[in-house]
Amino acid sequence: MTYMDNVRDLELLTMLARYGSFTDVALEAGISQPAVSQAIRRLEKRLGTRLVQRQRFGAGDGTQLTQAGRTVVDHVGQALDLINSLPEALAARTGIRRRTIGLPPIISSLLSSGQGQQKQSEPDKNTTVETIGSQKLLDQIEDHRVDYGAVASVDESLSVDGVETTKLASFPFGMVCTQSMVERLGAAGMTSLHPEDLAMLPGDVPFATLNRDFVHAQAAERLIHLSEPVSHLIEVSDVETLKLVTTSGLVCSLITSAGVHPGDGLHFIPFAGDDMPRFNIYLFNDTKREAFHEDVEEVHAFSDYATSRLGSVA
């Protein structure tokens, strides 16, 4: 009998099945590409079979699972679902309800800014708040691992089986940089941008954006990749780092207007056009989880508060 002693390796294989690229899995998991390759090799050695069909040299980073690899992923998915359901199972055994709220950093900042006398209550010890990028949060929502909250998407509608969604607000993406960089680029009078305008960026000025945990990565693929070589792109893992490298005056960045505040000292120029991706914010409530039935008042209170706050800033 073969025993599996490394759940993380199995998770990386399922991610490889989803993304089809060692590079993308490394970015998503926050580890190096060689570490992903080593994990797959460990699995192949343990199971005694090839799981991934790698491209030949020069054919790109694309990968394809073998029949054995697809079989493993099917079984692993069921096992990971059981592991992820452990908190709910323990809560049922102890009689303590636990809930998970999804609140990405930019949306959290919007909800908490300018609260005045109305202050959000701190979550109790039985509540977990997932403050992760919206793209990563969307994966958890699809796996039914989050009770309720707010999430962003570049899609004009959001549909997830068993999850109620309501669109609350929509913000443009744009280029943000320091005033001195704006003057250097001769963009002081510009009120909007199109992807082809990015050609004005000098070759020594990189363009920064958030990594694949965030929906910014999808917006970047539609906007920046149309005109900027990949070598000029810098991907960072959090909003504060993105602002930090931008305020240095050495880079321009892609971010939604929802993530830029007057106190940041940055100049924002939106991308304009009907076909431009936007930072759309949705409320979500998972009907398959306990909070939908047991914490109705709490869910409604969050919904009312988020609707009020986002309605005032959108």
Give an overview of the whole structure:
With 314 residues, the chain is an alpha/beta fold. It folds into 2 domains: 7-84, Arc Repressor Mutant, subunit A; 97-314, D-Maltodextrin-Binding Protein, domain 2. Helices cover 40% and strands 19% of the residues. It contains 12 helices and 11 strands. It has helices at 7-19, 22-29, 33-47, 67-84, 86-94, 105-112, 134-142, 179-185, 216-223, 239-247, 290-294, 296-313, and strands at 52-54, 63-65, 99-102, 127-130, 148-153, 163-177, 207-210, 233-236, 252-256, 267-270, 278-286. Strands 3, 4, 5, 6, 7, 8, 9, 10 and 11 form a 9-stranded mixed beta sheet that branches. The longest helix is centred in the first third of the chain and has 18 residues, at 67-84. The chain starts with 6 loop residues before the first helix and ends with a helix. Mean pLDDT is 81; it is low at 115-121.
Q: Could you describe the largest sheet, including whether it forms a barrel?
A: 9 strands, mixed
Overall structural domain count = 2
Mean pLDDT across every amino acid position:
81
Q: What's the helix-strand series?
A: HHHEEHHEHEHEEHEHEHEEEHH
List keywords for this structure.
globular; two-stranded antiparallel ribbon; 9-stranded mixed β-sheet; alpha/beta; D-Maltodextrin-Binding Protein, domain 2; 40% helix; Arc Repressor Mutant, subunit A; 2 domains; 11 strands; 314 residues
